[in-house]
Specification:
By secondary structure, the chain is an alpha/beta fold. It is built from twelve helices and 13 strands. It has a domain of 81 residues. Strands 7-8-9-3-10-11-13-12 form an eight-stranded mixed β-sheet, with helices on both faces. Strands 1, 2, 4, 5 and 6 form a five-stranded antiparallel β-sheet that branches. Helix 5 crosses helix 6, helix 6 crosses helix 8 and helix 8 runs parallel beside helix 9. The longest helix is centred in the middle third of the chain and has 18 residues. The structure holds adenosine-5'-triphosphate and magnesium ion (MG). Magnesium ion binds next to helix 2. Its main location: membrane. GO terms for molecular function: ATP binding; ATP hydrolysis activity.
Length: 345
């Protein structure tokens, strides 16, 4: 990794949580080794999630949410990417340790994953029962009979009617919402301490989306699983998240407890994002639509990457990257205007 990444990762711990959370990501940066040269797509991202907590990662398409998750899970192709971090720890274990041993043992077992499109994650040539049972046999070493019984119980738990019959169906016989329920069942099969859901509902219609979020919330209450939730649905974020991390062009621009974020969004991008969502149209601070376009990862910008689109831009924004600064309890924003300076226009 180049010097700039090393410099950034050498800075202090920004997570602000003293005891060991379930997942702690500290100073994560990711570059892709593209043709013209390395392109940074994630810069100095830090967050932590405790038991039973939900942290939501939000931001426009392409801001680096999925790459962050893929890097944490070691799913990026090593030849084409470079990852640097002060720490990525799951239950205190270093997920970036050489050899990937810690990662292999937690993926699918300690950490369950739900992705956007269930059909691409499910194997169309195996029944859903076989697929869930495979996870159970692999990770928990259950025998065939025990795995099948547990798979039925899991399908029942994600509210699939007549689970004992449906278990022998192939994925194509399930609707999109049901397939996502199967994915949730597989993700929860080994009672993971952390569930990562990356856009779990975007492929589904609105009523089914609400059902899936309800299900996730219920299961989380029962299991105390920590949840890292990536979604464009700010209504779901408002209902589910304890903390929100807002990303813009690969960087965290704001982090806040949920209640505070919707009442007192600080970063102009967050204000714009909330304004851009139909749920928050009544917000007096809305700035819809956010003018301009998201910078591409290769675009050279010396200062704040939101500066070209920001209605409050000042000179400094174009030359210096604003650091995340505390503006309230557990509330940080990376903006030269934060905390709002009464002398500024
Ligand atoms: N394998 C790759 N090689 C090169 N660039 C990549 C690769 N994967 C992702 N990127 C780039 O990294 C940036 C972040 O992508 P990412 O998929 O994390 O966005 P996202 O925030 O998840 O967006 P969305 O909301 O659309 O899912 C994008 O500019 C994307 O084009
Ligand atoms: Mg994504």
């Amino acid at each position: 990794m180049d010097d700039t990444v090393a410099d950034e990762t050498a800075r202090g711990d920004m997570t602000g949580i003293a005891s060991e959370p379930v997942l702690r990501v500290d100073g994560l940066s990711v570059e892709f080794l593209t043709d013209p040269g390395p392109t940074r797509v994630v810069s100095d991202v830090s967050f932590a999630i405790g038991e039973g907590e939900t942290l939501s990662l939000v931001g426009e398409s392409g801001c680096g949410k999925s790459v962050t998750v893929m890097a944490i899970l070691g799913l990026l192709e090593a030849r084409r990417s470079r990852i640097a971090a002060r720490a990525v720890r799951f239950q205190g274990r270093d997920l970036l340790a050489p050899g990937g041993k810690a990662l292999r043992s937690v993926r699918g077992r300690g950490i369950g994953m739900i992705f956007q499109e269930p059909m691409t994650s499910l194997n169309p040539t195996m029944t859903v029962g076989e697929q869930i049972a495979e996870v159970l046999r692999f990770h928990l070493k259950l025998d065939r009979k025990a795995a099948r019984a547990r798979a039925i119980a899991l399908l029942d738990r994600v509210r699939i009617p007549r689970a004992a019959e449906r278990i022998d169906d192939y994925p194509f016989a399930f609707s999109g919402g049901m397939r996502q329920r199967v994915m949730i069942a597989m993700a929860l099969a080994c009672s993971p301490a952390l569930l990562i859901a990356d856009e779990p509902t975007t492929a589904l219609d609105v009523t089914v989306q609400a059902e899936i979020f309800d299900l996730l919330r219920e299961l989380q209450r029962e299991t105390k699983t920590a949840l890292l939730l990536i979604t464009h649905d700010l209504g779901a974020v408002a209902e589910m998240a304890d903390e929100v991390v807002v990303m813009y062009a690969g960087r965290i621009v704001e982090r806040s407890p949920i209640a505070e974020l919707f009442v007192r969004p600080e970063h102009p991008y967050t204000i714009g994002l909330l304004g851009a969502s139909p749920e928050w149209q009544s917000d007096k601070r809305r700035l819809t639509p956010i003018r301009g376009r998201v910078p591409l990862p290769g675009d050279r910008l010396d200062g704040c990457r939101f500066a070209p689109r920001c209605p409050f831009v000042v000179d400094r924004c174009n030359s210096e990257i604003p650091p995340l600064a505390e503006i309230g309890p557990l509330h940080e924003a990376a903006c030269w205007r934060a905390p709002l300076d009464p002398d500024q226009p």
